[in-house]
Amino acid sequence: MSHVVTVNPRILAMEYAVRGPIPQRAAEMAQAGRSIIPCNIGNPQGLGQRPITFYRQILSLLEDPVNLERLGRAPSDAGTYPADVIEMAGEMAEGSRTGTGAYTESAGFKFVREAVSRFIDARDQLDSEGGLASDPDQVLLTDGASGGAVYVLEALISGPQDGILVPIPQYPLYSASIARCGGVLVGYHPDEESGWTLNRSILERSLGEARSKGVKVKAIVVINPGNPTGALLDVASMKQVVDVAREWDLAIIADEVYQENTYGRPWTSFARVVGNEKIPLFSLHSVSKGFYGECGHRGGYLEIRHSPPVEGTNLTLTEVLLKQASVNLCPNTMGQFLVHLMVTGPRKGTQSEELFRRERKTILQDLEAKATMIRDSFSKMDGMECFGRTGAMYLFPRLSRLPSGVGDFDYCMALLEETGMVTVNGAGFGQAEGTNHLRVAFLPPFELIEKVMPRWVEFHNRYV
Ligand SMILES: Cc1ncc(COP(=O)(O)O)c(C=O)c1O
Fold first, then answer.
1. End-to-end CA distance of the chain, in Å?
2. Which domains does the chain carry?
3. To the nearest 10°, the Cα dihedral for 340, 323, 157, 297?
4. Can you tell me the mean pLDDT for 372-388?
5. Which of 5, 306, 314, 362 is deepest in the core (most CB within 10 A)?
6. Predicted TM-score of the model (pTM)
């Protein structure tokens, strides 16, 4: 082989700003001994969040079956493990049959998929209303939500004129995966000033433009709560998405990984809004976010509703997705077990319940307090405007008063150099032309953020 290699141009076309030049510069600064505040990535345990005790106690027993069996026989030796942990770990080991070290079904452990379906039914109450129970055979366990999103995009993009409607700004998994599959990203722009809401004309404008260029739009991605906007979508907007999906023959890809990060505000799933309409729906959830923050364990699920038949075959789309999953053999087992824990939790009245509740509450309250503190500081910054109800783990303020000739990348770099704050500039996610933003992940410890905010305010007002 020569020293130069030709690489798939689609791989070269992929971009992922969350790990781009700003965090790279931050890493250099950290190496040189500067203190940095990494607000660039939604990686809770990477920033000091402690794992939920109940989850890790169960995982550790599942990884140590000899100990689990021993404790099952001699509960008095349990030491730090509560009886309910031993009991649940035992049930999960039995449910899995083969434990953590064997390949599993490509769709993931059946007992976990059944638990996912029960969780969805309890959450959405569709089962009791219209016989729309979630079907475990339409659930795929995946290595993080990313795995599920990629399966769906790979299957739907069948040629260079196939498009996917994606919010702008968006989480770059979507733009990168569409680029890799050789499809067309068709952007739609939620209305920032009304809290990143959606309406029919926003969506139809983008669909009309795509159609006039010969692009066949197959699906719409909705991220709720949003990344990077952090905004929680209202039900009226969701209904408009469903109306447009019905009329334009679109599937809906509902990225709902932040469904626990709503800070006391009501949240509705797309499954609930779609109801019994025959619109293909792919819903994603993950162990990486919420209060669990288990990003490194790579657990997630994809639930499919109204799976359509695949043209020219006798297959449904779910069967095609399963074929993709089978090429990867199976999702990792610890991620699957964590999905089970995410959708079940400790049983009522058990010893673990109280601690679990406390840990959950502390994490979510802390996130909300940090978001509020940052948002309050924005009001002291000239031309810093932040729209939408706080959700997810991000704030995405608009920089309305940058000096002429300066973009959000320059601002974020200067902010980093002066204060150590690592953020991602708006252009990394896409944004309406002529606007500038930045994304702040409110995950570093409260004290660190509290200390840096006055310096950010001072920097900002001087800079603009
Ligand atoms: C909107 C959104 N979807 C999906 C993901 C990927 O999550 P996972 O770790 O489950 O692959 C992220 C991660 O930040 C995200 O923000």
1. 52
2. 9-48+356-463 (3.90.1150.10), 110-344 (3.40.640.10)
3. 30
4. 95
5. 306
6. 0.94
